[in-house]
Amino acid sequence: MIYPYGMKKIIRVWDLPIRLFHWLLAVCILISFITVKIGGNAMEIHARVGYCVLALIIFRICWGLMGSYHARFINFVPSPQSLFSYVLGKSQGGIGHNPLGALSVIALISSVGVQAVTGLFANDDISFEGPFAKYVSNSTVSLLTSIHHFNEYVLLILIALHLCAILYYYKFKGEDLVKPMIVGDKEIDPSKEAKNLPADLGLASKDGGLQRGLALLLLSLIAAVLGYLITA
Ligand code: HEM
Ligand code: HEM
After folding, report:
1. 185 strand-pairing partners
2. Mean pLDDT, to the nearest integer, of 197-205?
3. Ligand 2: which of 22, 58, 219 to mutate, most ligand atoms within 8 Å of CB?
4. With a 6 A CB cut-off, is 26 part of the ligand 2 pocket?
5. What is the per-residue pLDDT for 4?
6. Is residue 94 pLDDT above 90, yes or no?
7. How far apart are alpha carbons 154 and 152 in whole angstroms?
8. C-alpha 26 to ligand 2 mean position (Å)
9. What is the CA(209)–ligand 2 centre distance, in A?
10. Which of 47, 204, 206, 211 has the smallest set of CB atoms within 10 Å of its CB?
11. Given ligand 2 and candidates 15, 162, 173, 175, which is best to mutate, with the most ligand atoms within 8 Å of its CB?
12. Is 14 helix (H, G, I), strand (E, B) or coil?
């Protein structure tokens, strides 16, 4: 297809499963921080949203292996060379996560994952403990609880960096990253971008009924297994 000069080409970058994953994750993390500050009975809610987060993270890891083009790790996790060349300004990012952004994505997914897993074993020394604490020794519980505490700060720093980076792109690079994470599409000017992004132009993320159905099935399966293990 030929695009006349100035005409934008619209490309699906973030499929619906990624977008839902992202915004549900953000809401759940917010609720888990609020509930832990309230304490008491709110710890029940803290645990429940924590299970949701765990299911979301496991889903995201699976989707990073089998999801749509820009969701797959192999298409955005940078090699050291591509990272350096991006940081030194010698190459441009593609249409998905740029090499530096990809690192922050990996860090966020890891830190959130560690938080949700250690939570399963954590104990507040008062009346609440994670459902798996009973399977391990007291010293393991206290170790995992300290990781849960320490990682709180790691997570807060990563979230702050995440938001600052998005603001930086908006203010200084004139790029709105948030809209694509909501609607899924990025607009590119093929007459300009074709120079930098030959590989990206044809590679939209598939986001049809089949992919969405598969994602729903996958998430349901993960939730069912997790629910079974947690209540066992
Ligand atoms: C999204 C995942 C989670 C986040 C972001 C999160 C965050 C936090 C934070 C910020 C604290 C407070 C630490 C402090 O007092 O300084 C905390 C405490 C705690 N969390 Fe989580 N948590 C998550 C998942 C879970 C899960 C799944 C469970 C258990 C089912 C859990 C159980 C606990 C317990 C028992 C404490 C109390 C520790 C204490 O007060 O000594 N958390 N969590
Ligand atoms: C607790 C809060 C948040 C967490 C844990 C979080 C986590 C993440 C993760 C894991 C990704 C990677 C998406 C993927 O490929 O799976 C991501 C991307 C993104 N997030 Fe967040 N996020 C949070 C809050 C926010 C907020 C409040 C905004 C909007 C203001 C936002 C905007 C974005 C955008 C625009 C991207 C795509 C960046 C890009 O184009 O490479 N996030 N976030």
Report:
1. 12
2. 65
3. 22
4. yes
5. 54
6. no
7. 6
8. 8
9. 24
10. 206
11. 162
12. coil
Say which residue, 225 or 191, is predicted with more confidence. 225
| Residue 190: partners with Cβ closer than 8 Å, 6 or more residues away | 3, 7, 8, 9, 201
In this predicted model, what pLDDT tens digit does every residue of 34-59 receive, in sequence order? 999 998 899 999 999 999 999 999 99
Residue type at 152?
E
Shortest-distance ligand to the CA of residue 63: 2
Query: Cα(64) to centroid of ligand 2, in Å?
Result: 15
User: Is the separation of the CB atoms in 105 and 86 below 8 Å?
Assistant: no
CATH code of the domain occupying 15-231: 1.20.950.20
Domain residue ranges of the chain, discontinuous segments joined by +: 15-231
Confidence of residue 8 (pLDDT cuts 50, 70, 90): confident
Tens digits of residue pLDDT in 205-229:
899 999 999 999 999 999 999 999 9
Query: In whole angstroms, what is the distance from residue 99 CA to residue 85 CA?
Result: 9
Task: Give the span between the Cα atoms of 126 and 136, in whole angstroms.
Answer: 18
Q: What gap in Å lies between CA 184 and CA 204, rounded to an integer?
A: 10
Signed CA dihedral, 196, 199, 202, 208: sign only:
negative
Q: What is the pTM of this model?
A: 0.93
39 φ/ψ sector (left φ>0, alpha ψ -120 to 50, else beta):
left
d(CA 130, CA 34): 18
Ligand 2 pocket, residue 141 CB under 6 Å: no
